[in-house]
Amino acid sequence: GLKFNYTPLKIQFKKAQDFDISGGYSFIWIPGDNTFEEYFHTQISALGLSLRATYIFLKTKKAYYGISLNLANCYYANTLPKYDLSTFFTIANIDFNVQFPFMDKKLFIDVRGGAGLTAFYDMHFEFAHNISSPPLYVLAPSVSLGSSVIFYPTKRLFISFGFDAAVSLNIFSEPRMFMYSLIPSLEIGYQF
User: Fold this and answer.
1) What is residue 80's DSSP assignment?
2) What is the DSSP string of 105-163?
3) Cα atoms in the 13 Å half-sphere on the side-chain side of 117
4) pLDDT of residue 176
5) How far is the C-alpha of 190 from the C-alpha of 156, rounded, in Å?
6) Distance (Å, whole) CA 71 – CA 79
7) Do residues 57 and 42 touch, judged by C-beta distance below 8 A?
8) What percentage of the chain exceeds 90 in pLDDT?
9) Using 50, 70 and 90 to split pLDDT, how confident is the model at 178?
10) Residue 166 has what pLDDT?
11) Does the pLDDT of residue 80 top 80, yes or no?
12) Are 71 and 91 in contact (CB under 8 A)?
């Protein structure tokens, strides 16, 4: 007679685009400027937050291509006998991303670079008797390069360990500064 071997047909759907949102802990280290060391007695802010939104618009077998909005924010403060000094420091960039998949798309290496803005805001001195200096706000253009290792323990949830370097060029206001920052981050995110 006639024999028929039936094996189930498996159909998989490949998404053409991805949208990833992640957030987590980061700190900003400013090794190239002694101003922070002089006034804050440190170059590292341990109180930091990072946020990232990545849109992958093109997928090939070897790489995924996209753009991302990256934000790193931290708080610097120093208490001295005669005054307190504090500021918020933010770096926001729009980057072009290339992601390389490994291990059956459970591990990715993300390489990115772009431009954006660096901001110091609400920098002020506080003296005795509730006397404060006027706040200082500085906004400067910046460029950045970075990379992340992204691991997917589930289909949509991911963990990312990244490292970025940003160069800020404060050329529009006084004091003129050329400053670079190193920003490691550990984030958890979700892919839509």
Assistant:
1) -
2) TTEEEEEEEEEEEEEEEEEEEEEGGGEEPPPEEEEEEEEEEEEEEEE-SSSSEEEEEEE
3) 8
4) 67
5) 6
6) 27
7) no
8) 52
9) confident
10) 93
11) yes
12) yes
Return the residue matching tokens 């400027």.
Answer: 33
pTM: 0.83
pLDDT of residue 11: 67
Q: How far apart are CA 71 and CA 114, in angstroms?
A: 12
The three-state DSSP-derived secondary structure of 5-70 is: CCCCCCCCCCCCCEEEEEEEEECEECCCCHHHHHHHCCCEECCEEEEEEEEEEEECCCCEEEEEEE
Bigger pLDDT: 135 vs 163: 163
Give the Å distances, CA to CA, from 153 to 33, 57, 64, 65, 189.
Answer: 39, 23, 19, 22, 11
- Using CA atoms, how far apart are residues 55 and 68, in angstroms rounded to an integer? 6
The residue to which tokens 């920052």 are assigned: 181
Q: Which amino acid is at 127?
A: F
Token pair 């498996």: residue: 10
